Amino acid sequence: MENKITNNITQLISDPTKIIEKKYLVKGTIVFIMITVATFLTLFILNDIDTLLDLIYQIKINFLLILSALTAIDILLDTYRYHIIAKSLNPNIKFRLMFRANMADSFGSAVTPFQIGGGAAMIYTLKSGLSLANGLSVCIATFVISLLIILFSSTISIILMQNHFSNFLIDHLLYYGLFSFLIVFIIILFSLIKPDLILNKINSCLLNRSKNSKLCFVRLFQLVEGLLKTCKGYNLICRQLIQSHPIILFVSFIVTIIYYFNRFLIAYFLVIALGGSITLPQIIGIQSLVLLFSYFAPTPGGSGFTEFSINTLMLKYLDGTQLFSFICFYRFILFYFYVIIGSFVIFSELHFGLNKFNNKNHAIGEIRQY
After folding, report:
1. DSSP-derived 3-state class of residue 278
2. Using one digit for the tens of pLDDT, what is the confidence trace for 215-243?
3. What is the average pLDDT across 237-252?
4. 330 — phi, psi (to 5°)?
5. How far apart are CA 303 and CA 9, in angstroms?
6. Strands (E) located in the chain
7. Residue 92 or 360, more confident
8. 4 pLDDT band (50/70/90 cuts)?
9. Do the beta carbons of residue 195 and residue 231 sit within 8 Å?
10. How many CB atoms are closer than 10 A to CB 36?
11. Which of 45, 178, 188, 346 makes a 20 to 30 Å CA pair with 148?
């Protein structure tokens, strides 16, 4: 059993797309829906909702048009920041394919713990336009850029908005978010700069232990050996990307800043549309912290973590009905909408891939008959 688990982990390290299997996606979807429904039911009870429909009907049409336009811009910017990097690796890659991959990323993030399935779903969808290594490079490059921006913006928010952190839960979420970001950032730095610095030492230690015929150390040695080879391969690809296309990475960095600012604008106009009162700097600070909390949340898609952190941080600016409406609209516009589209994309990709595989086997069988 342990050997099987070790082999599975090693395979996932060398090929992340192996996580995209229908049975896992279906289970993850069920868990995601259950957590989401439980979260909103809890928020509904806590916020004492009584005039929800009246509030929704009072939203003016001009705010709906603004939010629709900003949502369209959000989708385009999100896709474009991936596309410009992907195009530097394959000039023939289509924007439409990148859009599908981006939607698949949202669905993969929603149905896997710690949102680890997002990158795998994107790489799987990009298989017709990019190799596994190049697809992974696009994901890592964009991930590092997002990591830097969120870490910087959330740190500034913590310094400027200390009065918001009287809540016990928020204090601990801050520590969790910052600790997770720093750990991941350090791991990425080592994998890009010196991937064998620590892994070689671990490997030599495990090798000495495995000589004593202890099965667990032998399996750990095999796991670290596979991780070392994979890190060296990814290190080479990322180094080539940085050396060959620094301007492209800088442009992607600027586009990502604009992308997150557009998301903050959506939250700002949503508060105003619901009758709340808040300044743009305040909403930027709060949303930066929400990103920090939810980015490495252990639940699928950050469900529960995101909603309750918004609920706690926005209590000062919205009443119960307004706050519940804000969370519903905010999550639908910036996440659930993407997840719904992504579910169609990824399941159609899986269905097409299965049919292609079956047709290939059928053709091979007919050839062998002759």
Report:
1. coil
2. 554 555 555 555 556 666 667 777 777 78
3. 83
4. -60, -50
5. 25
6. none
7. 92
8. very low
9. yes
10. 21
11. 346
